[in-house]
Amino acid sequence: MLDHKDRAQVLTEALPYIQKYSGKTILIKYGGNAMQNEKLKKAVMGDIVLLSMIGVRVVVFHGGGPEISDMLKKTGTESQFVNGLRVTDEKTMDIVQMVLAGKVNKDLVNLVEIAGGKAMGISGVDGRLITAKQLDPSLGQVGEITDINIEPVTDLLNMGYIPIISTIGCDSEGKLYNINADTAAARIAGKLGAESMLTMTDIAGVLMDKDDPSTLLSKITVSQVPQLIGDGVIQGGMIPKIQCCVEAIRRGVKRVFIIDGRVEHSMLMELLTDAGLGTMFTA
Question: CB 3.0 to 4.6 Å from 27: which of 2, 146, 189, 198, for a disulfide?
Answer without folding.
Answer: 189
